[in-house]
Write a structure and sequence with these properties.
It contains 14 helices and 8 strands. By secondary structure, the protein is α/β, with parallel strands linked by helices. The chain has an 8-stranded parallel beta barrel with strand order 1-2-3-4-5-6-7-8, surrounded by 10 helices. Strand 4, helix 6 and strand 5 form a beta-alpha-beta unit. The protein binds glyceraldehyde-3-phosphate, 1,3-dihydroxyacetonephosphate (13P) and zinc ion (ZN). Glyceraldehyde-3-phosphate (G3H) binds next to helix 3 and strand 3.
Amino acid sequence: MPLVPMRILLDHAAENNYGVAAFNVNNMEQIQAIMAAAEKTNSPVIVQASRGAREYTNDAYLRHLMLAAAELHPRIPMAMHQDHGNSPATCFSAIEQGFTSVMMDGSLSEDGKSPSTYEYNVKTTKAVVDAAHAKGVTVEGELGCLGGIEDGHGAGLSSEEALCHLTDPDQAADFVAKTGVDALAVAIGTSHGAYKFTKKPTGDVLVMTVIEKIHKKLPNCHMVMHGSSSVPQELLEIIRQYGGDMKETYGVPVEEIQRGIKHGVRKINVDTDNRLAMTGAIRKVFATKPSEFDPRKYLTPARDAMQKVCEDRMVQFGQAGHADKIKIKTLREFVDFYAKGK
Ligand code: G3H
Ligand code: 13P
Ligand code: ZN
């Protein structure tokens, strides 16, 4: 099956009250793990690549990995998404490479670090929406800044200042109307990576009520949760057991994500859990079989461990069982769809 616009998957998820995990890909084993999990659970998939992933793989390798996945798994509707595009140029080059969805993260300046202004965010996101929709490509925008409230968004902010970077529901309504994005990433206190919360999060640091308020205002808006790895304690334990150094840390509980899905969350970004699973499996081989030096001997268990995480999330988010129920539309059909809406 050709790669499909991400909007199809989000619309189907909204109509059927489930969420779709978006897994990051950097190499062959990761895409194989995702596709094997999708086949096993009959799930549609969103595969995404960060700027770092595109640099690491070189676009050509990445593009061919995606095309191989689509060729080998004709039953699975699959969207290929640019994660955290830092500028229109990044999004446009992704579209040239065949991505069927892009994120213009205008909540940050082009350096990908410092918070931008609202005006900049609206302007750059709208420019990407106009160009992407003309090609049928889906666009995700972001409002508010990701990052932990506990650590001041990792940007030297106080917890109070960090709270100001959460998505404002009124501004969300204005942003969606002005830009025409297909999906909105919201800031609710999550952050990327393994170190999200110092204890199991409560509502003051993982502010799920932001999602509930936005859903009330914008019932048709597809929301995206970033930084949504659950950081399972058992995966941390495997890494520690085989010599790794993981401090005490907590992620986003799956039941909180399920609460978000009930209130309009349709895309859930998960990368760290897969990294933890692969690292634990590789460490185990290195520690228990020190004479092993064939990469296939440690990459196979790593791939299996990632597949298990992907299967778990596909079932937990409710996307399992839906792959063969989705009516596919082409990018061309989406060009017409967007043109009609204007
Ligand atoms: O955006 C966060 C994802 O985990 C991707 O991370 O930029 O290290 O590839 P990365
Ligand atoms: P995690 O680090 O929680 O897996 O988040 C990934 C993400 O948001 C990618 O955009
Ligand atoms: Zn993210």
